[in-house]
Amino acid sequence: MAQQRTLSLIKPDGIEKGLIGKIVARFEEQGLKPVAMKLVRLGLPQAEAFYGVHRERPFFKSLCQYMTSGPILAMVLEGENAVAKNREIMGATDPAKAAAGTIRKDFATNVEQNSVHGSDSVENAAIEIAFFFNAFEIQAYEWKKAR
Ligand code: ADP
Ligand code: MG
User: Fold this and answer.
1) Ligand 1 neighbour 63 (Cβ under 6 A)
2) Which helix (H) or strand (E) holds 124?
3) Which of 28, 47, 68, 132 is the most exposed place for a label (fewest CB within 10 A)?
4) Stated pTM of the model
5) Residue 91 Cα, ligand 2 centroid: separation in angstroms?
């Protein structure tokens, strides 16, 4: 299977609960390597742009308010089949429906405040990675690998 990259976010509830270490450990232990990482806080226009696909959904306004309510950790994860693997490690959107041992089952508050985001396709991963990271921030890792 192919090496892929995907975008992962630890959402405001995950940061608030002090879960950065635990969540990153799950990715590392299951074969996904962070190759870029930063703590940022989104403004409302940025949250609305990031979740633009959900603009017509009833939860859109509340979702964007929540996503701007505190800092988030943005990461690029790399590994075999990383897009699907990340979704598997995260678990279903609604923690009540998430499988045992997944991040959302173990840590999420509810269907909105569900601790993590993960890209849903290789195509969207490229778009979402470019939303958060410039070439320099990702290449820093490439230079390290080449040494
Ligand atoms: P996922 O994050 O699993 O890809 P979606 O893309 O469907 O899920 O939704 C994006 C985000 O919107 C979810 O992670 C969650 O924070 C929020 N969300 C999704 N469905 C609901 C809902 N029914 N009520 C409130 N918030 C929701
Ligand atoms: Mg989604």
Assistant:
1) yes
2) helix 122-132
3) 28
4) 0.96
5) 12
Q: What's the DSSP call for residue 11?
A: -
82-130: pLDDT as tens digits:
999 999 999 999 999 999 999 999 999 999 999 999 999 999 999 999 9
CB neighbour burial string for 59-80, b if at least 16 within 10 angstroms, e if fewer: ebeebbebbbbebbbbbbbbbe
Residues with a catalytic annotation lie at 117
Contacts of 22 (CB under 8 A, 6+ apart): 107
